[in-house]
Amino acid sequence: MNILVTARMKTSFREELVDKFPEANFIFKYPIEEAEPYIPEADVIVTFGEDLTNEHMEKADRLKWIMVVSAGLDEMPFEKIIEKDILVTNARGIHKIQMSEYAIAMLLQVYRNLPQFIENQRKHVYDKRVKIEEISGKTMMVVGTGAIGQETARKAKAFDMKTIGVSRSGAKKDYFDECYKNEELLDKLPEADFVINVLPATPDTEKNV
């Protein structure tokens, strides 16, 4: 089996793959221009998903599986992938830690007025009049209750927040006090102090929020 890896990987990760799967023939080529001569013989392609085109899929005579080592599939050439019946899998939830931390960090930055404090620190100024607020006890609405949404809600609980989840199904998910369907978003919006949008970019979600 020929596994073409177009995703940039650390040497240690490459060595681990080769050691764990000695029966596979790994071909590590980055960027995609270096990988192109090997596409016709590849059975599997491991990619971040943004480098493949319909033209590449045309040349992929043996390709059966594309493994996307990220969550997003926005840039994938699905026209040819579907036509050639190629399996596509992704790393769902891989970004849940960094994205949820980022969301909480941005809330703290705004409510604690950190840019002003940093500017004052740079100028060696102490100004106790700088307005700050707390995020504790607030209500957070998370639109998209997948892996990132659930992890964001879990972290919000550390700040004693009420958490409202909004999704297509409205199904109950961990770390949310309440869950609703997308159609109910506007009805629940007045209750939210913060709205975190972690919906995937699809035609259905483009103008959701």
Helix share, percent:
25-40%
E-strand count: 9
CA-CA gap between termini: 44 Å
Strand content: 15-25%
Write up this protein.
With 209 residues, this protein is of the alpha/beta class. It has two domains: 2-90, 3-Layer(aba) Sandwich (Rossmann fold), CATH 3.40.50; 96-197, 3-Layer(aba) Sandwich (Rossmann fold). 32% of the residues lie in helices and 19% in strands. It is built from eight helices and nine strands. Strands 2-1-3-4-5 form a five-stranded parallel sheet, covered by helices on one side. It is globular and about 65 Å long. It starts with a strand and ends in a 12-residue tail after the last strand.
Question: What's the arrangement of secondary structure elements?
Answer:
Layout: E1 2-5, H1 11-20, E2 25-28, H2 32-35, E3 44-47, H3 54-59, E4 65-68, H4 78-83, E5 87-90, H5 96-111, H6 114-122, E6 139-143, H7 147-157, E7 162-167, E8 178-181, H8 185-188, E9 194-197
Parallel strand pairs: 1-2, 1-3, 3-4, 4-5, 6-7, 6-9, 7-8
Helix pairs in contact: 5-7
Write out key terms for the chains shown:
209 residues, alpha/beta, Rossmann fold, five-stranded parallel beta sheet, 8 helices, 19% strand
